[in-house]
Amino acid sequence: MTAIIGLLIIALGSLGQSSSYVPIKKIKSWSWESFWLVQGIFAWMVFPLLGALLGVPEGSSLFELWGAGGATKAVVYGVLWGVGGLTFGLSMRYLGVALGQSIALGTCAAFGTLFPAIFKGEDLFSGTGLMLLIGVSITLAGIAIIGYAGSLRSKNMTEEDKKAAVKDFALTKGLLVALLAGVMSACFALGIEAGAPIKEAAIANGVKTLYAGLPVILLITLGGFLTNAAYCIQQNIKNKTGKEYFAVKSNVLLNNLLFCALAGVLWYSQFFGLEMGKSFLEDSPVLLAFSWSILMSLNVIFSNVWGMILKEWKGASNSTIAVLALGLLVLVSSIVVVAMAQT
What are the pLDDT digits (tens) for 3-36? Predict the structure, then answer.
């Protein structure tokens, strides 16, 4: 029963993340680099900081807690993850919410699950390691099918239909960017592993397991923010878009800030939910190790639901939609297979 509660909490966080790109469509008069930087302030700084404060032991501080070890590595992995976060945003730009998230998050699910296991020297051909490998293989199969559905959509749609669904649609460029985003985004999982001493120190000092990992999340998102901020500011200078932040009318500025904040809190909810959900999976080692892949797979599923709502698959043939549905079904099966292995 506790495992089911954990999975439901992770699913709620996933639903939030998958919805986080919808508010961005309401932002007005800002270029991509401008709104990406502002939503990043909320997603990677403001809300992670508020969450991290829940994981600080009474009478202590974040800096004291970070001194337990692993903080520098977590930030470095965060910087690398930031490259993934940056290209992740670009994958949405070129492929849309549904296909962009499917490819990027599916790749991230696979590598984010396997990297920590490999770095710990775990045997992937027996026991828990074998179950992880099977689960990841099924996940990758699902992503491959979804990618194929995307290629079918591209072939069957006119240029006008593509632009109507996704303004800057570019399949080849988008797929390459999404794959890079997925591999680099997997560094987030490595950052969580690197910050394990911090989480252990928080628990040892009376912090509930529900919140103990949140100070580590802040370190990783801080590193990611540095990468994204550097790129966005460089683009602001290059494209002379820095004036956009203050050139809009006050009501437009308020609108943009509110929707950036909404996007930020929805995005952060995935990792808030992941850390809380994992606390209910302590008695299920395989589910705990596979939790990253579960989160990313659910993100893919929910993002495709949004893709349907936003009519990004409008004009696609019934056979293309059937292939997409098959890919989503395979993704769900990866979670079911791992969960059944626990019974």
Answer: 889 889 999 999 998 888 788 888 999 998 999 8
**Contact (CB, 8 A) for 94 and 242:** no
Residue 183 CA to residue 106 CA, distance in Å, equals 10
pTM for this model (two decimals): 0.80
Map tokens 């390691």 to a residue: 129
Q: Of the ranges 144-148, 158-162, 179-183, 249-253, which one carries the lowest mean pLDDT score?
A: 158-162
Cα–Cα distance, 254 to 243 (Å, whole number) = 16
Name the one residue in this structure whose structure tokens are 């977590």: 74
CA distances from 220 to 11, 31, 56, 195, 251 (A): 22, 26, 16, 9, 33
- Among candidates 329, 298, 330, which has minimal Cα distance to 138? 330
Whether residue 195 contacts residue 74, with contact meaning beta carbons closer than 8 Å, is answered with yes
Give 119's pLDDT tier (boundaries 50, 70, 90).
Answer: confident
Residue whose pair of structure tokens reads 């993934």 in the numeric block = 84
What is the average per-residue pLDDT within 313-329?
83
- Which long-range contacts link 123-130 to residues 24+ away (Cβ below 8 Å)? 128/285, 128/286, 128/289
Which value, in Å, is the radius of gyration of the alpha carbons in the chain? Answer: 20
Alpha helices in the chain (DSSP H): 2-18, 32-41, 47-53, 62-66, 71-119, 127-156, 159-165, 171-185, 187-194, 196-204, 209-212, 214-239, 244-247, 250-278, 285-309, 318-340
Please state, in angstroms and rounded to a whole number, the distance separating the CA atoms of residues 270 and 20.
Answer: 10
Decide which of 143 and 61 is more confident. 61
Name the residue type at position 151: S
Q: Over the stretch 69-107, which tens digit does the pLDDT of each residue have?
A: 999 999 999 999 988 777 776 776 666 655 666 677 667
Euclidean distance between CA atoms 29 and 143, whole angstroms = 34
Are the beta carbons of 177 and 87 closer than 8 angstroms?
Answer: yes
Q: How far apart are CA 100 and CA 189, in angstroms?
A: 20
Q: From CA 270, how far away is CA 300, in angstroms rounded?
A: 12
Cβ atoms of 99 and 88 closer than 8 Å: no
